[in-house]
Amino acid sequence: MDHLHKDWLTEALLAEHCRGAQTLAHALRRWIAAGRLPSGARLPSSRALAAELGIARGSVSAAYEQLVAEGYLAARHGSGTYVSAPVRPATPDAPPAAHPRGLSARGHALVQASRLPAGLTGAFAPGMPEIARFPHATWQRLLGQAQRQASLELFGYRQGGGHPLLCEALADYLTLSRGVRCDAAQILIVPGAQAALELTARLLAEPGDTAWVEEPGYGGAHAAFDAAALSMHPMPVDEHGLAPKGAAAAPAPRLIYLTPSHQYPGGMVMPVTRRLELLETAARHDAWLVEDDYDSEFRYSSAPIPALQGLDRQGRVIYVGTFSKVLYPALRLGYLVLPDALVDPFRRAAARLYREGHYPAQAALAHFIADGHFARHIRAMRELYRQRQALLRAVLARELGDALPLSAGEAGLHLIARLPDAFDEDALSRRAADEGLWLRTWQRHCLAPTDTRALVLGYAGVEEQALAHAATHLARLLQASDGFAGRR
Ligand SMILES: Cc1ncc(COP(=O)(O)O)c(C=O)c1O
């Protein structure tokens, strides 16, 4: 059994101001659910931890007891307290574990299954754009202008589905650059892709309906579908993205969620034949296709692939887009492109559930697009990310030769680094985390157990020196790992 790195744990608990049983239990529960405290890890004794934290031993014992009762920890007589087997169900059908008092079963499933990644920042955080190079001064100016010029009604309760200027600008952009067939009236502005997915799941599926999801896939989609009490069926991906192989044996879907422009996290691009096949599959099941087009602006080898939505002649595709990658995540602006018949119900539901807001920011964004800043920023970031990807490849190749095969990286903000079969990724992640390097494993994107061993390495949001440093660090950790082909 692994011992946790005691200093790390103490520092993290001190940073969270854990002074009592409740705050301590809360922090530990969160880290276990997030995979940050791996299964099998041994916790310090209550006496030792209490001394490190400068709190009463009884508080630590109470927190441990609470988490044992909840199934997060296991106490072995005479040998200590350990993190239990993974709290995330091994398969979507596994019975739910005991859940904390007060949380509904659905809430508990949501919290467990949609583990918030521990390393949301750091050198390899996937999906993080470069925020430092965002044209902040221009954005401030446009925001200020929009705020000054906004009529008073833009500050009240709204239910228009978004600022008309932004919907117009987006319709033009999506038609020209993404091959989406739409007009402004089909666009609904929402607080990010996450809200778009949640709304889609709630409005188009009944609790218990099946959603096919890519395996491996996007945790945010899993969370949205969990929140809507859908049953997720993991569909394998191959070199062309979601593969409807074995579909005959799969439960009939109500929703099919996919990232055809750049499979997340696998990175494959879905060719047109597969897109057409999936449109047919959806038609056969009378299901909706939810196309999450989250980062396809960043394509390095050829022009972006036109959206699946543009091929749809039956109004089956719900197209989801976001400004989180092209601008910055905390902007919380995303959008849906909806078939005509769904526009009004989605607009009403969004206005009820989330309320509409940030109209001046939406107006500023419309000007940001119309004045050419948006296209310029995408071009600049595409070049920057291309260079960063090349740097990451070069450092890993220099350190490891061809012992760590990397994905083609034709698009997006991350690469996949393939590890040998049966490699202990968790041990590597733990060692890396102990040294302050956060790694995202392939496994954590899977609903079912997998034999594939790989890392998801973001490279876009970190400056060059730190990226090179992290790559060297990773290489060193790999070289010291059992079962790694390039071991020194
Ligand atoms: C597959 C996928 N979809 C969507 C998003 C963005 O979601 P949001 O707009 O909620 O920030 C991400 C971000 O990581 C993602 O990886």
Automatic annotation (TrEMBL):
A GO molecular function assigned to this protein is: DNA-binding transcription factor activity
Pfam families from the entry? Aminotran_1_2, GntR
Q: Which organism is it from?
A: Crenobacter intestini
- Taking every annotated instance into account, which residue ranges of this chain make up the domain HTH gntR-type? 18-86
What are the alphabetically sorted keywords of the record?
Aminotransferase, DNA-binding, Pyridoxal phosphate, Transcription, Transcription regulation, Transferase
Give the UniProt family note: In the C-terminal section; belongs to the class-I pyridoxal-phosphate-dependent aminotransferase family.
Q: What is this protein called?
A: Putative 8-amino-7-oxononanoate synthase
Q: Which SMART domains match?
A: HTH_GNTR
**Which SUPFAM superfamilies does the entry mention?**
PLP-dependent transferases, Winged helix' DNA-binding domain
